[in-house]
Design brief:
- Helix content is about 45%, strand content about 20%.
- By secondary structure, the protein is of the alpha/beta class.
- It folds into 2 domains: about 300 residues, 3-Layer(aba) Sandwich (Rossmann fold), CATH 3.40.50; about 170 residues, Succinyl-CoA synthetase domains (Rossmann fold, 3-Layer(aba) Sandwich).
- Helix 2 links the parallel strand 1 and strand 2.
- Helix 13 packs across helix 14 and helix 14 packs parallel to helix 15.
- The longest helix has 20 residues.
- The two termini are about 25 Å apart.
């Protein structure tokens, strides 16, 4: 068994436990220990759950135990959500019980200063001596959508299962991001991992696990500091050959470094070094914020990789086509030279005065055949053009000027025609009610929609960038 496989096996207890102790479970609905236990029950986790609270006999219908050692069952995982000063004692119980893994949700460790660091060092020493793996402290921990398991104390909504794993160094950010994803994004999640202070399990080990996870197609990471640079670089290179990794790293400025130190006790790494590592390892680093991270993640979650960098821009507005052309040049993309056959297919349905080029201005088609048929004609012609590797679709919603129609009909038709699986990304502008309706219809059919042409083109550029990395690695 290789070291990588062994590490993957070690982390199974965090994602696929059969038995779980919740240390700090509470009967008080205002306590985190109540919310955590309720999440497990509400999500329908089918494993064996053991609340641990010395002052309770029963919590949420489950028998409670005074301490971990009183549980008459093997324990794969213990979730600890008690005050920091109590955690070492709980860890000693876990060691005696031979628990495989521990998630420490409690804060008050290295991120708070020297006293907290001593507590964290004590926890790590107990864990290492007993062979216990630890995620945290200072985190909300894990969500596995495949088996409805979570260690989060943040109330969780019903969620869409999907192919994106989200790894964050901070728990509440991961929890809030999860709420944002499920309420705004068309893709679902496979795993969410909050690593907190990373006293033991780190980004590299989680990446090794996710590389082997059949439910995960795309990995998105929010990171503040790096624990072991060489190890992470090696893992980045190995995993990025299998699955795309999109990284948002904060702590770039002196102020950001100081903030991350007080937040998770993170060790800073020089930003130019981290940036160079990402480029060499095929990591897609975004420099903005969560929105940009999700922009790129959405493209990878919904669309295939392009086979080339030549783009057809199908647009209702000439100005939008010009902006898209500029942005394509900025992001390593080129406007495709359309074949004579493609231009003829579009031209034959246009008014005699109209010209066809790339960008393909389809406003004249709207005048002759209407918006739905116009989109079908232009996009289908581009899909069949061997010079075109991907398509950017720019539509506008202007009441009375462009009649409302169910764009889903056109998309369903075009999906059948897209036999070569060329990526299609869209930008919509205009009357909000119509834009929202079209965006929902498009994304239900797997076409990502963006709020600006730049964001749309940049996301497509990232698909091509990763495709080139994969080609170089062959």
């Amino acid at each position: 068994m290789t070291k990588e496989i062994k590490k993957t096996e070690e982390l199974k207890c965090f994602f696929e436990p059969e038995s779980v102790a919740v240390v700090g479970a509470s009967r008080n609905p205002l306590k985190y220990g109540y919310s955590l236990l309720k999440n497990l029950l509400d999500l329908g986790f089918n494993g064996r759950i053991y609340p641990v609270n010395p002052n309770a006999e029963e919590i949420l219908g489950l028998k409670a135990y005074p301490r971990v050692t009183a549980i008459n069952d093997k324990l794969d995982l213990a979730i600890i959500i008690v005050p920091a000063y109590k955690v070492p004692e709980v860890m000693r119980d876990c060691a005696e019980k031979r628990v495989k893994g521990v998630v420490i949700c409690s804060s008050g460790f290295r991120e708070t200063g020297e006293h907290g660091k001593k507590l964290e060092d004590e926890v790590v020493a107990i864990a290492r001596k007993a062979g216990i793996r630890v995620i945290g402290p200072n985190t909300t921990g894990i969500l596995n959508s495949a088996n409805n398991f979570t260690t989060s104390f943040v109330p969780l909504p019903k969620f869409k299962k999907g192919n994106v794993a989200f790894v964050a160094q901070t728990g509440l950010f991961a929890a809030a991001a999860f709420w944002w994803i499920i309420s705004t994004q068309p893709f679902g999640v496979s795993k969410i991992v909050g690593l907190g202070n990373k006293c033991d399990v780190d980004d590299a080990e989680v990446l090794e696990y996710l590389a082997e996870d059949a439910d995960t197609k795309v990995i998105a990471i929010y990171m503040e500091g790096v624990k072991d640079g060489r190890k992470l670089f090696k893992t980045f290179k190995e995993v990025s050959r299998i699955k795309p990794i999109i990284v948002l790293k904060s702590g770039r400025s002196p102020a950001g470094v100081k903030a991350s130190l007080s937040h998770t006790g993170s060790l800073a790494v020089r930003d130019e070094i981290f940036d160079a590592v990402c480029k060499q390892a095929g990591i897609l680093r975004v420099e903005g914020d969560l929105d940009e991270l999700l922009d790129v993640t959405k493209a990878f979650a919904l669309q295939p990789l392009p086979k080339g960098n030549r783009v057809a821009v199908v647009t209702v507005t000439g100005g939008g086509g010009v902006i898209a052309a500029d942005k394509c040049a900025e992001h390593g993309l080129e406007l495709a030279l359309l074949s004579e056959e493609t231009m003829e297919k579009v031209k034959r349905n246009m008014p005699s005065w109209a010209n066809v080029g790339n960008p393909i201005d389809i406003e004249p088609l709207f005048e002759t055949v209407g918006p739905e048929e116009g989109i079908k004609i232009a996009v289908e012609a581009a899909l069949k053009d061997k010079n075109v590797a991907s398509i950017i679709l720019i539509l506008v919603a202007v009441p009375r000027l462009i009649p409302y129609f169910e764009i889903k009909r056109a998309v369903t038709y075009l999906k059948e025609k897209n036999v070569e699986r060329k990526p299609i990304l869209a930008y919509l502008l205009g009357y909000k009610e119509t834009v929202d309706s079209w965006a929902m219809q498009l994304e239900e059919e797997g076409i990502p929609v963006y709020s600006s042409i730049e964001r749309c083109v940049k996301a497509l550029g990232c698909l091509w960038k990763y495709r080139m990395y994969r080609l170089r690695g062959r």
